[in-house]
Write a structure and sequence with these properties.
- The structure is a single chain.
- The protein has 2 domains: 1-36, no CATH class; 38-252, Rossmann fold (3-Layer(aba) Sandwich).
- It has helices at residues 17-21, 31-36, 67-75, 92-103, 114-131, 151-157, 161-166, 191-195, 206-209, 228-237, and strands spanning 61-62, 65-66, 81-89, 142-146, 177-179, 202-204, 216-224, 244-252.
- Strands 3-8-7-4 form a 4-stranded parallel sheet.
- The chain is an alpha/beta fold.
- The structure holds zinc ion (2 copies).
- The site of one zinc ion has 8 residues, from helix 2.
- Belongs to the ComF/GntX family.
Length: 253
């Protein structure tokens, strides 16, 4: 038996055929920790940002889309950006887990999410195949682009959490973006301020960008909040002429 990657308790449930294929199975975490992770059901989420629609006020939902995403669509700022997929709801437990991961440098926690991230990645690829028309449906090739930290923040933290999460998936990773400045703390702004698009803090990494042309891009980050970061990243990637840009995050917050 192994210890839980988060709380250190013995995991208690040996690997079995059943839990290996159960959707809530997150190897590495004990049952009590897993029960506190609340997965977002992909069948009942906003088709654009991946949030759970059942938790949202009815009048904020239009045809499977939340009101934030309707605003984004109307803003004309989506560009090549298609949608986001998120694994879990933000709750106090996950907040504590993310603190331990990001701010106390416990990168092993990412291993506990490998199975779910990989499963979500496969689902995204599968959905793309389904959306294709014609008889010869080709499996699309995705390139993962971790949302970067500024060099100051990277130095301070020692790792980029988005990069660590991306490496769990096992698909090709391209460091196509550079973050040229940090944002003021998002939590200090109100929602309207956070949704307003600033000038992009991202630049294209010209060397890496040559490989993006015609490819489907999957941005990877730990959390999707207002969606502004994703649009800004997509905007910076656009000159490299990718086919389309989607994102996958651990959390919808
Ligand atoms: Zn635990
Ligand atoms: Zn939405």
């Amino acid at each position: 038996m192994e210890r839980c990657l988060f709380c250190g308790e013995m995991r208690g449930d040996p690997l079995s055929f059943h839990n290996l294929f159960s959707p809530e199975y997150a190897p590495g975490f004990c049952l009590s920790c897993r029960e506190q992770l609340v997965p977002i059901d992909p069948r009942h989420c906003c088709r654009l940002c991946g949030r759970d629609l059942s938790r949202l006020d009815r009048n904020r939902v239009t045809e499977g889309t939340c009101s934030d995403c309707v605003k984004w669509a109307n803003s004309g700022r989506n560009g090549l950006y298609v949608n986001n997929h998120a694994l879990y709801h933000y709750n106090p437990f996950l907040k504590e887990m993310i603190n331990q991961f990001k701010f106390r440098g416990d990168v092993r926690l990412a291993d506990g999410f490998a199975a779910e991230l990989t499963r979500a990645y496969r689902r995204i690829v599968h959905n793309c195949v389904r959306e294709q028309s014609g008889i010869l449906k080709r499996k699309p090739s995705f390139l993962l682009v971790p949302v970067p930290l500024s060099s100051e923040r990277l130095l301070e933290r020692g790792f980029n959490q988005a990069d660590v999460l991306a490496r769990q998936i096992g698909a090709p990773i391209v460091q196509a973006l550079v973050r040229v400045r940090d944002e003021a703390k998002q939590s200090k702004k109100n929602r309207a301020e956070r949704m307003r698009l600033r000038a992009t803090p991202f630049q294209l990494n010209e060397k890496a960008a040559v490989s993006l042309s015609g490819h489907k891009i999957l941005l990877i980050d730990d959390i999707y909040t207002t969606g502004a970061t994703m649009r800004l990243a997509a905007e910076a990637l656009a000159p490299a002429r990718p086919d389309s840009i989607r994102s996958l995050t651990l959390i919808h917050g």
